[in-house]
Amino acid sequence: MLHKNLSVNEAGHLALAGMDTVELAKKYGTPLYLMDENRIRENCKIYIDAMRKYMGEGSRPIFASKACCFKRMYAIIAEMGMGTDIVSPGELYTANAAGFPMEEAFFHGNNKTDADIEYAMNVGIGHFIVDNQEELDAVNACALRRGLRQKILLRLTPGIDPHTQKKISTGKVDSKFGTAIETGQALELCKYALSLPGIELEGFHCHIGSQIFDYYPFRDAAEIMLRFIRTLLDACGHEIRTLNLGGGFGVRYVENDPVVDYEANIRGLAEEIRRICAELSIRQPDILMEPGRSIVADSGMTLYTVGSVKTITGYKSYVSVDGGMTDNIRYALYESDYTALLANRPKDPADFCATIAGRCCESGDIIQEDVMLPRPVRGDTLAVLVTGAYNYAMASNYNRIPRPPVVMIRDGDDYIAVRKESYEDLCRNDM
Ligand code: LLP
């Protein structure tokens, strides 16, 4: 199976963390997001342990909560002793409502409003990740009004394209996020930050992309960032103590995706960072990473009930399910690959080529094209695997479809982490 928390039980049904998915679909109804809490914790622990061991005591992962945001997630992350990255006042509110220790939260975003900045300071946010000079001014002003110095990381663009592993300066410098090193603007911004009494410039942040399967692009980014740390030290005598390398490693969605050994990659990256720091004669800063996908994706799956099965003669067969782009928009947006199975008979020969369609009034509402399944019939339970990241988080109410519940599995038990939206919920704000 794709991941070790997946199996087929004695009843011949697909199981997640040992729990019968067909039974869970009956109990909670479909569509249904399932998440394996122990798996989330294991993923956290791999990053926590490896980063501490290979990168030093102060180095640690913080959860990119955009990947999966609801109160119970923040509670799990807090229990694991991890910080979190948040990107909006809504995420901030959710973390705070969950009792998340806000000093462990890092506030991202390329356009924080004055109200967002006030709000974040009201709840005692630990760090702002400041995108640009305007924001720096606004954070400084807000901090001065409160008589404090706000800890910040500056978001910089190192000019790396992780997928070609070449430094495509124009492409990545030209980004809506951060301030470019290459153009000289980053150094100017640092000098400016250092002149502001309400700002404590603790570190730098960069994010080079998502779904990266090895550490080489991170090494390339780290090298540019560390060189820039040296530049700033020479120019201003200011030592940067924290380097945040952004999102985490990639995840296996289909058999063809590589298996990524996170620990080995963190070890490899740590060795390179040590070498580069020695070459540059700088003290190694604490390293942060912001994994989202690799913390939650493989803990999750989505269950649907098969409805109509329709073959267009000479073309293809559409298998429609009771969810769709409203609970998983990633194929419509990115043509993302997913593995689909019939959960009630995963071992039957997969000899039927299916295009899995959702129920929205939109022809692009496709979950996956041309996947091999046993010939589905109305009432089968269809499982789409590895949907723990960016599925619930990106869900919508298009066509007034309520969002499915999120059910967590923990130690052989199941509980509701997010309840199913009702039709009343959909009308809650309608006047
Ligand atoms: N940090 C920053 C600044 C980011 O922009 C992101 C992702 C992360 C961390 C987390 O990256 P991860 O570890 O999850 O790869 N909605 C898309 C992904 C967009 C990711 C944007 N930023 C998807 O469904 O694939």
Main attributes of the structure:
2 domains, 13 helices, binds ligand LLP, 431 residues, globular, alpha/beta, single chain, Lyase, Ornithine Decarboxylase, Chain A, domain 1
List strands and helices in order, with pairings.
Blueprint: E1 6-8, E2 14-16, E3 19-20, H1 21-28, E4 32-36, H2 37-55, E5 60-64, H3 71-79, E6 83-86, H4 89-97, E7 105-107, H5 114-122, E8 127-130, H6 133-146, E9 150-157, H7 169-173, E10 179-180, H8 185-194, E11 199-205, H9 216-236, E12 242-247, H10 262-280, E13 286-290, H11 293-296, E14 300-311, E15 317-321, H12 330-334, E16 340-342, E17 352-357, E18 366-373, E19 381-385, E20 406-410, E21 413-418, H13 423-427
Parallel strand pairs: 4-20, 5-6, 5-13, 6-7, 7-8, 8-9, 9-10, 9-11, 11-12, 12-13, 15-17
Antiparallel strand pairs: 1-2, 2-3, 4-14, 14-15, 14-19, 16-19, 17-18, 20-21
Helix pairs in contact: 2-10, 5-6, 9-10
The chain binds ligand LLP.
Identify every distinct bound molecule in the structure, by name, code or SMILES. Answer: ligand LLP
Identify the CATH homologous superfamily of the largest domain.
Alanine racemase
Question: Helix content range of the residues, please?
Answer: 25-40%
How would a crystallographer describe the biggest sheet?
A: 9 strands, mixed
β-strand amount: 15-25%
Domain unit count: 2
The poorly predicted ranges are: 164-170
* CATH second-level architecture of the largest domain: Alpha-Beta Barrel
CATH class of the largest domain: Alpha Beta
The rounded Rg comes to: 23 Å
| Ends distance | 49 Å
Number of helices: 13
Q: What structural category do the secondary elements indicate?
A: alpha/beta
Morphology = globular
What is the tally of beta strands? 21
The average pLDDT value, as a whole number, equals 96
Per the CATH scheme, the topology name of the largest domain is TIM Barrel
